[in-house]
Design goal:
heterodimer, A: alpha/beta, 10 strands, about 45% helix, about 10% strand, B: alpha+beta, four-stranded mixed beta sheet, 7 helices, about 35% helix, disordered C terminus, binds flavin mononucleotide, binds iron/sulfur cluster, binds FE2/S2 (inorganic) cluster
Chain lengths: ~425, ~190
């Protein structure tokens, strides 16, 4: 599409040595930090609010608004504030944060220090999934460079502001991407989610106010300081400003990470950026925002644009983390759904009965369905189990496991009933769409 | 949840930190407001040093962070990457989640099984390789992929797997392909 494709997050990607402090600084790195340190914290939060930036971790919650939930010093009564960067990146289909850190660790460090200053945090932690050891090593090297230059630590750039930034490595658990589980994990506990409220902004890590933000979210912040909120709002749609990184994978010619303005037509992402489907194949379905969001049909793909509102209006699905998974006619959706449910059954933290038992139950039905060893009733049970998990659990993982089942059964029922050797029952579609 | 079974009864025997380890642990603890928060990094240190987390190692870690051993055990068994039993010299973990599956992960697993003559969860008789399947490793655009120890190996083909595994068997260092700074979209796939 002939819209400008500004590069905000990827602006230093591709430069030789883009991960080093020298190259980052040569291309504008840490200039925003200097500027931000001279600003009042509340003004930075106001600027981020005005930009319309929404969290890139999956939920799309307005970032500036989240920051403003941190209680003021008087209400905190001496409690510290913490910033945590979520680099757990475990949602199937999502692989952008790894590239963000790998290609430009200093953009993340700068974003963390500015955000910490804005919310009054003296310590920031970057929680990386356990498998990102080599990414953590590069980030630790970058932190060493930044610390040596006085951009991290005490009295940053002589401003009197202290912010320390530490990395923390997880050890293999998808659920640690959920923010309250992440907090349990960083405190040295099993990574199990907690009920909200209290929300982390009020009571998070070590019982103190804590802001959790995704890597991509924090990396936008230096650009916002430099260019101002209006420039950001000028990109994207009215309700979804700025650019977004899309992780594209599956049956396409050019899988990879693409930075595009929000509101970009989905079909053009598929055909122009991703190079289209492999020759001779036709589109069967797309999962637009990581494995947890509802699946989309080709008709829906043709109508939707890549932003929170459109995907929801057109397909009842979500932009999520921007993990765009494309499947052509060869994909067997029974097999695909069984694959996803095996993932959810494996990753459930086990605290809530509907989630712990339901994910395993759904997987075993789908596993039997794969070989056709299933009846119409089994498919009804599958839908009932999914409906009974959604909204009945401590964390949103339960819904994340239910939504693929609900949407596959609703949008592609022939595949499932066909496998059981029956046609789609007359009462199926209206009942399915009621949910 | 945890895909390593519970520890075997035998372990390492008495273990202790070196003075350098102790200095590293003391430094680690300065990062956090509580001692317990250093538990995960210390478990990682222990795993690097002793290869896996036996009861002996977990007891030492418990003393280090002032926790009952049962708490350390509870945490260690939650996380799949913490090994509660020994593995071969190289741990091969093939991703079999959706994007990798669409790119042929099953054939990758089959190829490795045949090549090494082992099933999933097994170790080769010479103790060199252990094979496992894992869930999405955030490398879906460069599928199919596997992780060997700390390294990602992406865009796998039977030939590239042979090169990697033969190299390791002959004691060559890992080729360590990683996302290149000038390559965040990948080679065009064959049509
Ligand atoms: C099951 C589950 C897994 C999640 N995994 C991640 C993740 O890997 N990375 C991430 O940034 N957010 C993840 N989230 C969202 C976080 O809970 C949190 O909302 C997010 O990190 C906030 O950052 P943002 O406001 O910048 O989007 C997950 C949420 C759930 C329910
Ligand atoms: S919904 Fe699932 S993952 Fe979340 S707390 Fe409950 S059992 Fe754990
Ligand atoms: S599906 Fe294999 S790395 Fe994501």
């Amino acid at each position: 599409m002939d819209v400008p494709k500004p590069r905000i997050l990827t602006r230093r990607w591709g430069l030789a040595g883009s991960h080093t402090l020298a190259v980052a600084e040569e291309h504008g790195g840490y200039a925003s930090l200097r500027k931000a340190l001279s600003m009042a914290p509340a003004d930075i939060t106001a600027l981020v609010k005005a930009s319309g930036l929404r969290g890139r971790g999956g939920a799309g919650f307005p970032t500036g608004l989240k920051w403003s939930f941190v209680p003021n010093a008087e209400k905190r009564a001496g409690k510290p504030v913490y910033l945590i960067c979520n680099a757990d990146e475990s949602e199937p289909g999502t692989f952008k944060d790894r590239y963000c850190i790998w290609n430009d660790p200093h953009m993340l460090i700068e974003g963390c220090v500015i955000a910490a200053h804005a919310i009054g945090a003296k310590a920031a932690y970057i929680y990386l999934r356990g498998e990102f050891k080599y990414v953590k090593d590069r980030l630790d090297d970058a932190l060493k460079e930044a610390r040596a230059k006085g951009y991290v630590g005490k009295n940053i750039m002589g401003s009197g502001v202290d912010v320390d930034v530490w990395t923390h490595q997880g050890a293999g658990a998808y659920i640690c991407g959920e923010e309250t589980a992440l907090l349990s994990s960083i405190e040295g506990h099993r990574g199990q989610p907690k009920l909200k409220p209290p929300f982390p902004a009020v009571e998070g890590a070590w019982h103190s106010p804590t802001i959790v933000n995704n890597v991509e979210t924090l990396q936008v912040v230096p650009w916002l300081i430099e260019h101002g909120p209006d420039a950001y709002r000028a990109i994207g749609t009215e309700k979804a400003s700025g650019t977004k990184l899309f992780s594209c994978s599956g049956n396409i010619k050019k899988p990879g990470v693409y930075e595009l303005p929000l509101g970009y037509p989905m079909m053009e992402l598929l055909n122009d950026e991703c190079g289209g489907l492999l020759d001779g194949h036709t589109l069967k379905a797309v999962i637009p925002g990581g494995s947890s969001v509802p699946i989309m049909t080709p008709q829906e793909v043709a109508k939707a644009t890549m932003d929170y509102e459109s995907i929801n209006e057109v397909a009842g699905s979500y932009l999520g983390s921007g993990g765009f998974i494309v499947m052509d006619e060869r994909a067997d959706l029974v097999d695909v759904l069984a694959n996803l449910l095996r993932f959810y059954a494996h990753e459930s933290c086990g605290q809530c009965t509907p989630c712990r038992e339901g994910t395993g139950w759904m997987f075993s039905i789908l596993d039997r369905l794969k070989s056709g060893d299933c009846t119409e009733d089994d498919i009804r049970i599958l839908r009932d189990v999914a409906n009974n998990i959604h909204s009945r659990t401590i964390c949103f993982f339960g819904a994340s496991a239910a939504m693929p089942v609900q949407s596959f059964l609703k949008k592609f029922p022939e595949e499932f009933f066909g496998r059981a050797g029956v046609s789609v029952p007359d009462d199926w579609r209206p009942a399915a769409s009621a949910k | 949840m945890a895909h390593f079974p519970t520890p075997p009864l035998d372990g390492h025997g008495p273990v202790d930190w070196s003075p350098e380890d102790q200095a590293e642990i003391a430094e680690l603890m300065t990062h956090y407001p509580t001692k317990r928060s250093a538990l995960l990094p210390i478990l990682w240190m222990a795993q690097r040093k002793w290869g896996w987390l036996s009861f002996d190692v977990m007891r030492l870690v418990a003393t280090t962070v002032d926790l009952p051993p049962s708490e350390v055990y509870s945490v260690a068994t939650f996380y799949t990457m913490l090994k509660k039993q020994p593995t071969g010299k190289y741990l091969i973990q093939v991703c079999h989640t959706l994007s990798c599956k669409l790119a042929g992960a099953e054939q990758i697993v089959d190829h490795i099984k045949k090549k090494l003559g082992i099933s999933e969860g097994e170790t080769t008789p010479d103790g060199m390789f252990t094979l496992m399947r894992v869930e999405c490793l955030a490398s879906c655009g460069s599928a199919p992929m596997m992780q060997i120890d700390d390294d990602f190996h992406e865009q796998l083909t039977p030939d590239s797997i042979d090169a990697i595994l033969d190299g390791l068997a002959q004691g060559q260092p890992l080729p360590s392909p990683r996302p290149e700074v000038d390559q965040w979209t990948f080679r065009s796939l064959e049509s």
